Amino acid sequence: xxxxxxxxxxxxxxxxxxxxxxxxxxxxxxxxxxxxxxxxxxxxxxxxxxxxxxxxxxxxxxxxxxxxxxxxxxxxxxxxxxxxxxxxxxxxxxxxxxxxxxxxxxxxxxxxxxxxxxxxxxxxxxxxxxxxxxxxxxxxxxxxxxxxxxxxxxxxxxxxxxxxxxxxxxxxxxxxxxxxxxxxxxxxxxxxxxxxxxxxxxxxxxxxxxxxxxxxxxxxxxxxxxxxxxxxxxxxxxxxxxxxxxxxxxxxxxxxxxxxxxxxxxxxxxxxxxxxxxxxxxxxxxxxxxxxxxxxxxxxxxxxxxxxxxxxxxxxxxxxxxxxxxxxxxxxxxx
Length: 335
Prior knowledge:
alpha/beta, TIM Barrel
């Protein structure tokens, strides 16, 4: 059985050299900061310092072997998503990124699959890029951020993208970005510790209450970090849908929030076997998938070991989480 890690970040081989050489074409430049090299996008937005292991395939493969992970679904470091670029430049950047990612995947097709990036600042172009990446580059899905340059995921302008993702029935990995912007989360690393799970929760709530999941039953969202607070608070959403529909927009969706959430998958990055056990009980084993958040220290870099520590799982349930559920998702992608 193949073990899949759905939550693994990368920079495609050659990306940073290309941006250093020809970044102006893609609205970027590679700059030196106090903590190391970073990428600055047109308009001034600058990433944190780049990790040397983002594009180190030998290190990645060694880490996968040590962690007993057969295949990683490679997705962009979310800070490289580039939604702040102008539409035409963002489209050029996304195509370049996906071409390099396809080459990286092809270099070890037995160990890697690709989740493309798309220029969501222009949803029509993003839909076209998603179709191209899946049908021409062999990508198995897409990673998007929890917001699009400040817009929430139920923004009506994003409808062409959601329609394309549903048409393709490909996984859509939703990853926190700029978590809880405007809140005081800079101290104590709260932007990550609290902000990231909260950001995922807000994002999927917009898709639920905004009717996106209701309109597109073939969508395949995947939430990282165990879905944030979503699994533990979803019954509260049902209560709001029933009790204060005039405030939640509940009259605009045709099912209870917990029913719509049955279309969502959740990764295992919860750092506690007991919580993974509870997640399985709460959402169903068929909707839990293995994740690591490689290569970040806040990830679970030995996710198979963590799953092994969930003693309540049967062998069949363990196989489903390790790879069976992802295999089913991939078999369902419309090429």
